[in-house]
């Protein structure tokens, strides 16, 4: 075994005398072993052939191709991200709900947004917004509301959405107290 390593060392030193077309002294075995790993990490995990071609631009030795293949096979990142031809199992078909424009309205409050310096009242702005979205068409509207109370929100909903567009069959909203009572009463009265 020791004789084989000495022979390989001599072969590596004798065959590794070319570096970018210039005569170089033989490479040490430690350099030959470390170079593919370093290139593989630096080049962000290329495949075996690309790694071999890149290293061959600067270094070469007998067994370069086999070394590049073994480096890529040992790499955990390459093994995890490798594309596999075999598919395991099938996903169940997810039923798509019927999409009807203007059927559903989603509303939510965002904010408060604060701009400026609170110590200087002339530069300080704080406001709340209400978003109204029709998920089927993707149409949305954003309204600046003055106060975050149920009656103000119900009024802005009526002025900015219900008076302009077809009335929705469903309204989706979070469980905030701003929506619950007044919005429901407004929709029932209309």
Topology, element by element:
Layout: H1 2-15, E1 18-19, E2 22-23, H2 29-42, H3 48-56, H4 64-74, H5 76-81, E3 104-115, E4 125-134, E5 139-145, H6 150-162, E6 170-172, H7 177-189
Parallel strand pairs: 3-6
Antiparallel strand pairs: 1-2, 3-4, 4-5
Helix pairs in contact: 2-3, 2-4, 3-4, 6-7
Number of DSSP strands?
6
**How large is the share of residues in beta strands?**
15-25%
In the CATH hierarchy, what is the class of the largest domain? Alpha Beta
What is the name of the CATH superfamily of the largest domain?
Answer: Ribonuclease H-like superfamily/Ribonuclease H
Structural class by secondary-structure content: alpha+beta
The overall pLDDT average reads: 75
Rg, rounded, reads: 34 Å
Shape descriptor: elongated
Q: Which CATH-level-2 architecture of the largest domain?
A: 2-Layer Sandwich
Number of domains in the coordinates?
2
The number of distinct helices, counting runs of at least 4 residues, comes to 7
What is the helical fraction, as a range of percent? 40-55%
Which regions are unreliable across 5 or more consecutive residues at pLDDT < 50? 16-24
The main β sheet shows up as: 4 strands, mixed
């Amino acid at each position: 075994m020791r004789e084989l390593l000495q022979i390989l060392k001599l072969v590596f030193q004798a065959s590794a005398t070319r570096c970018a077309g210039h005569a170089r002294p033989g490479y040490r075995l430690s350099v030959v072993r470390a170079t593919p790993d370093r290139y593989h990490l630096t080049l962000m995990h290329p495949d075996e052939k690309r790694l071999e071609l890149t290293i061959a631009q600067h270094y070469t030795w007998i067994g370069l191709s086999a070394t590049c293949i073994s480096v890529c096979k040992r790499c955990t990142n390459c093994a995890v991200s490798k594309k596999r031809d075999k598919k395991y199992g099938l996903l169940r078909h997810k039923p798509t709900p019927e999409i009807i424009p203007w059927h559903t309205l989603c509303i939510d409050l965002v904010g408060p947004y604060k701009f400026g310096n609170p110590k200087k009242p002339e530069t300080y702005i704080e406001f709340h917004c209400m978003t109204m979205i029709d998920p089927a068409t993707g149409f949305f509207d954003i309204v600046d509301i003055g106060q975050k109370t149920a009656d103000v929100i119900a009024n802005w909903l009526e002025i900015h959405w219900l008076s302009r567009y077809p009335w929705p069959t469903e309204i989706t909203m979070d469980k905030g107290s701003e929506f619950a009572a007044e919005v429901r009463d407004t929709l029932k009265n209309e």
